[in-house]
Design a protein that fits this description.
Number of helices: 3
Structural class: alpha+beta
Strand content: over 45%
CATH topology of the largest domain: Porin
Low-confidence stretches: 26-30
Mean pLDDT: 81
Strand order of the largest sheet: 4-5-6-7-8-9-10-11
CATH architecture of the largest domain: Beta Barrel
Length: 201
């Protein structure tokens, strides 16, 4: 507290000195304009001090990219929408792909920020190639529970994906289990995905 008071006193003295020449105030006789200028300079000085005191700690970054596989359930409307584009599939398709994931964390933080690009290819067991790309931004707790949201692009159209899940850790290996729901005009798609990743810098 004494350090803050001393710093504030030094700032006020510096402002006073900068506004005087040969001991006489530069803004003397300027009335309201002078007082307003002094107030603005004082606020700027205090703001600079506050910003310096509230800077967040440096965040570290971890690369948790790895393969993904799973299953997607398609609503009847989605199947019909794909059929209109001459893509014939059943109500459920396999998924294989890769997840590009980066996690940002601090040493003392319990919740980390996560950004993910998920590229999948579905329907291979039905001799069909259905590409899917999602960008998900979310959070992950210290225990591995996670939630995210972001855009999704597939041959059925564009939509918003809501994802949740849990990441289980065994040494340097991470095993995620996620459920993603993509509601759309044609119907809802629900995917269950898993895989693994090794923590890398």
């Amino acid at each position: 507290m004494k350090d803050h008071s001393s710093a504030l006193s030094r700032q006020l003295s510096a402002i006073s000195s900068s506004l005087s020449v040969h001991g006489r105030p530069m803004l003397a006789g300027t009335g309201a304009v002078g007082r307003a200028t002094c107030a603005v300079l004082l606020v700027l000085g205090l703001s600079g001090s506050a910003i310096g005191q509230t800077l967040p700690p440096y965040a570290k970054e971890a690369n948790l990219s790895g393969p993904r596989f799973g299953l997607t359930l398609l609503a009847d409307g989605v199947v019909k929408k794909l059929a209109e584009r001459e893509i014939e599939v059943g109500p459920h398709i396999s998924q294989f792909g890769w997840q590009f994931e980066k996690q940002f964390f601090t040493r003392d933080g319990g919740v980390t920020m996560v950004t993910e690009w998920v590229a999948l290819v579905g329907g291979l067991e039905q001799s069909v190639v259905l590409p899917s790309l999602s960008w998900i931004v979310g959070v992950r707790t210290r225990d591995g529970a996670e939630f995210g949201i972001g855009p999704n692009i597939t041959p059925a159209g564009t939509a918003l994906v809501l994802a949740t899940g849990m990441t289980f850790r065994a040494g340097a290996v991470n095993v995620p289990v996620n459920v993603a729901v993509v509601p759309g005009k044609s119907g809802t798609r629900v995917s269950v995905l898993s895989g693994f990743s090794l923590r890398r810098r």
